[in-house]
Design a protein that fits this description.
alpha+beta, 5 helices, three-stranded antiparallel beta sheet, single chain
Length: about 190
């Protein structure tokens, strides 16, 4: 019995299967871990990788859209008058032909040679969306007309345009230049 009592004093009794709860897991513990514990981490990493890839693709697409828009704006600035310039070439051709034909022309032919380019230019302006504002006899509209002066008149209603100094123009409904006009005011009786 002495042998046993010495063993109990010096060495603690060992149970058949000792479990140390504070010990760190060994590499063998990971291999024994169920796959359900590893799947969420791998799934989250996979999802994070997919999101990062989507972000990079969206970022690249946004940069491409910005570059394309900048290029489109630059081309729009460069070639905004392309159609208009092409239309004006017909007017230039008409003027050149008119100058050449003036040498042997009579008065009626000269008048038609002078008027033809103006008609052609007016037609070209209309095709390009430019409209004339010629308000003679119309009520004064401050959005389209610029009153240069007022003139007493007994013939027309006050606020009516009685003279047009300079025609106005609009481009697709937007004012390019107001018509410069004289507006009627009430006539003053002189007694």
């Amino acid at each position: 019995m002495n042998g046993q009592s010495e063993q109990t004093k010096n060495e603690p009794a060992q149970p058949d299967e000792a479990v140390d709860h504070d010990a760190e897991p060994s590499d063998n513990d990971d291999a024994e871990a169920p796959p359900a514990e590893q799947d969420p981490l791998a799934a989250l990493q996979s999802k994070a990788d997919e999101n990062w890839d989507s972000y990079l693709r969206a970022s690249a697409e946004l940069e491409n859209v910005r570059k394309r828009a900048a290029r489109d704006v630059e081309n729009a600035r460069k070639f905004a008058l392309d159609r208009f310039a092409g239309e004006l070439l017909a007017v230039v051709d008409g003027l050149e032909m008119g100058i050449l034909s003036q040498e042997n022309a009579d008065a009626d032919q000269l008048r038609s040679v002078r008027e033809a380019p103006l008609k052609l230019l007016s037609t070209t302006l209309v095709r390009c969306g430019v409209a004339v504002v010629d308000p003679l006899g119309d009520p004064f509209d401050p959005e389209l007309h610029e009153a240069m002066t007022m003139q007493p008149s007994a013939d027309v209603e006050p606020g009516t345009v009685v003279t047009v100094f300079q025609k106005g123009y609009t481009l697709n409904g937007r004012l390019l230049r107001p018509a410069r006009v004289v507006v009627a005011q009430e006539a003053v009786d002189q007694e």
